Amino acid sequence: MTKDVIALTSKMPDPWAVLAGLLSGGPDKLVGTRGEGAVIQLCDPGGRPLVSVEAPLLVSVEGEAERLLGATAPPAPYWWTEARATTGVAEAEALAGTFATRLASLLGGSAWPPDSAGSLAVVKTDGVSVAPEPAAAQPAIDVLTERVAVVIQDRPVVAMTAWLSDAFRAAAEAGLGLQIVSPAGTTLSPAVRDALGGWPSRWIVQDERDGYYDGLTGAVLRWQDGMFAPVASPDATEDDPRTPVAATFQEVRDTGERQLALTFRMVHPADDRLVLGGGLETVWRELTGAPPAGWGTSEPATLPWSPRRLTDVAHERAPEPTWFVVVGNRDRPALATVRVTRTEAGVEEHVTLAFGYGVGSGSAEEPPLNALPAAAEALATRHHLQSMLVQLRKARRDVAVPPRFEGPGVPLAFVLGAEEVRAMPGDRARRTPLAEQPVTLGPRTRPALYYPLPGDPSDLSGWQDFEQLMRHLKGA
Asked: Using one digit for the tens of pLDDT, what is the confidence trace for 271-291?
């Protein structure tokens, strides 16, 4: 399996420090590059990579090393340098550990994981070689078949790193699914969960009792026909292909932690003065009293929050879509993903956002449900809101996704933007079959509507109300 080793250093890895790290395999070790020089590789005699080192990241956001690695980093800003050892070669793992240890020793800092820190001496790799391409062609991919690309991630949190983002992209371009394999106890970043999509892409968790299972559905899996696929139950039929569910996945524990989840979409007029991220910041301030802590185009989030800089990146990449991750601070765990696309309607922002609550700072926390109408009104009147769904979920305060069952959220409110209200015939949007009628947001001449859903947050009855509302609004 591949091994990720990360150096967290106070000083920037200058060329001399990187050279000292690269000499961990001795002066005769071949060095190659990928990605227009963004990735440096130590190679075997055949030119195939043993260790791939990505360009260092300057992390200016506090708490990212703690969130993703469970590690203590130097005070921000600090440098995050990843080295990835190639599958199944023990010497490659030692090379990566020595590389990171040398950087930390020269620049001040530490290597993660702690047990990867090794000697500063040269690692003997005489006669060592790795698998031929295509398996070694993409540093992030461990196994490649005609159906899927498999990535093995031995980290506390499987995050949307630049490595993994490249793997997603390579798999998509090749028309393959992406399957991520991780050990028991690992969690998944919401950013990765939202990107996994459908079959055959999966998050696969190793398990002592059942071997392997899908971390999002619990289905027991086996390697068959070139990919991980569900195991059929003995009593399965063609009409009812039952799949056993892993026992570990079913071990549900209600810790009292909750997540307030919001999904909303805004459509802005295409204008040179447009600044993106304003709607997300507005919601964040309404619900927490502060703006987001940081953002980036991968994890860790490296940049302090700045709607203007986020807009510049999206503008540079247009007309191609742009994906961002936005994070909160230590006191208020939160994570959002933002997808910006250019369409005939204008510039669309699709936001998925979750705030975590539970026991924090020594006291119990409750989601600020009373602030939701004000947040919705600010979106509707100032940020071209099209629609928003608000849910309350029994889920982890740190917003990470565990490999265990987490029930669906309960809908608390739905918001329909002013343009959508205006487009509906008659007074359909204002008169609904629900017991509680919508609240008008913004000017009465051009209102948005906030639909409180009367379902009990402790059960799933809110979904019945939501489905009834959707059928009514669609005229069904």
From this structure: 888 999 999 999 999 999 999
